[in-house]
Each structure stands twice: as structure tokens, then as C-alpha cells.
Amino acid sequence: MVSPEAMREYFQLDPEIIFLNHGSFGATPKPVFDIYQEWQRRLERQPVKFLGREISGLLKEARASLGEYLNVSGNDLTFVSNATFGVNIVARSLKLGQGDEVLSTNHEYGACENVWNYLSQRQGFSYKKQAIPLPIKSRQEIIEQIWQGVTENTKVLYLSHITSPTALIFPVEELCAKAKAAGILTVIDGAHAPGQLALDLTKMDVDFYTGNCHKWLCSAKGAGFLYVRPELQDLIEPVIIGWGLNREPSLGSKFLDYYDWLGTNDFANYLSVPAAIDFQNKFNWPEVRQSCHEKLTDVLKTINTQTGCVSVYPGTSFYSQLAIVELPRVKDPSEFKNKLYDDYKIEIPLTQHSSKTFARISVQAYTTKQDLEALVVALNELFDNKALTD
Description:
three-stranded antiparallel beta sheet, alpha/beta, 43% helix, single chain
């Protein structure tokens, strides 16, 4: 396996910065970025040929590559700019109204929560959030806690695969099975999952799944996807009206026609996805992920020993390459975060959940043990700073 130090050379990240925030926007390897730019140059060489005659076929090939990666047909996927866009498509397409309920949790991503809250106020349905308290005890407890919120009015179960504020891997496969048996539609936000988890959407048996390719899969920015189970694709409506609205289906389904061509755009980000998949295949990414996971596990133990806090996870299977660790007694999370960056050149987000402050640590292929040791040293010193802690 290529060492983290060698892997760092494949990325364009500032060498002066200890980058422990891959989870926010990702980072694209140089070979993938080169292919991304080559697609842009190809567009500029002959825009009419590229956009007028070639792009549909090129997008079909890219969808096929991504479909193979996710173990679904590429014809059941459409590219979107990000997972939030995918959630918008599904939420706006479903005919939810007075008396209907969408069930979720208190671990969801704020922008996507805004989607459901906004539509619930306009359409009259209820958006309910089940509290999943930390620390977590077991997968079964998560399932039971979520299912306590199900009623005869529950029409949709909306969950993150890996939660953004708490980096918790939800047992979505089991929950999708329970929902299907109860006649409840499943909408899964997989923003952090591609590249961080081995995905099999067919086995998951999910109804709607949206994810980002530009985070842990490392494609160019602005590349995500929406998968819709074939028998439910007629439910999907266009959020943006374009040429695909009234024409006879030319791509195999109205679902694809609605979102394949919305007008002039730079499609290079979508076309970079196969290159990102190839890059990770070249470096045996399951092995890379496991190495990252082990380093993350070690640093979580070290920091929890340092602070005396209990891990929010009952075992290592509840996170992958992204995890949170409690930072007790921090007065101002924003100031604390700024000190980490300004004084120690550590880029890492601080999040708040259940009135507690956490550091969310990302460990990617380029993250060294020295990077994580530097975080431990910095936290030690900042915890002793009475201006920052109680």
C-alpha cells in the first residue's frame, strides 16, 4: 500500500496545512483533476459538437461506471451537483400533504432539514425528528429508537447513511427493509458514503438514494448523483424545467430526460467520476480505508483518554474514516477552531450536538500519524489555555 506521505503527493493540498477536514468538501487527486480539466478543454475545442452531439453518450458512459460502482443500472441514476440537490428533487416530487408524516432524526444535515421544513410548511405534512442520544449503545437500539416514531401516517423515512454532525453510520439496510414491509418510502442521504463505505444499493433495497462523488470518492467538485428505484421513477418531477419536459423519452425514461440536459453547463465534474473510481481502484481503496480507520480509532482513544470523555460510539463499526470526539470545557467553539488553524495550521471543523462541542476528524489516504499527533499536541496546549476553556 502507498504510504500517506507518498499519497499526499497525488493531492494539491497546501503542504503547510494539516488537513483533517476532507469531509466538508473533499480533495481531488492530481490525475483525476487532470482528466477533469481535459474534459473542459475538449468542450472548449468544439463546444457545439461536445454539447450538441456527444454529451448524452458521454454522460451515459459515466453513469454506467458509477452504476457498476454502486451495483445498480446506470439508467437508474442521474447526475446532480450535490446530495442536497438530490434531496430537493425527491422531496419536491413526492405528493405529501395534510396528515402525512416524514420521519427523520436529530442527526441530519441542516440544509436538507431545511428542505423538509420548508415543504412541510407549504404543503401541510409533518416533519418529525426522533432523538438518537449519544453515546450510542447498539445498532438495534438505533433501529428501535427510530422506529418508535413510526405511525400510521408515516409516508417517508429520511435518514443520512453517515451523519454529518456526528459521523455515525446508521443501519440503513435494516431500516429500509422495515420501511418497505410497512409501505414507507425510504430516502437516504449518502453525502459522505461513496468512497468511505462499500456500497451496494441493490442489496440495500432503497427507494431513493442521493450521494456526493466529490467528497470521499474524490471526483471534481460539484458531482453527485440521485438513484431512484425503477418502479418509482414516474414519481420524480423536474425541479428545473428544460428540454426534457415534453419530448418523447430519448434516454430510456422521463426521469433521465428531465435531468440529463438542463441547458449549457460544464459537465466535466460529472465526467471526472469514472476517473475517481479508477484512481481508487488502482490503489486498492478498501485497504486504504482500513488503514485510515485504524489511525482514526487510535487518535479517538488518545483524545478521549486525554479529556476523560466517553466515546460516542460503542464500537469501531459505527464510523469509517470520519468521526467526532468530545472537546469538554470549550467556551467558544469558533474561537477554539480559529486557534487550531491560526496557531497550529490544523484545518478541522468543530460541531455542536446535544449542547456539547466535538471535533470532527477526517482521515484520508494522505493523512499521516504525524498529522494526528500534531492535533493531540495542539489540543493539549489549548486545553491549558484558560481563555479558551472553563
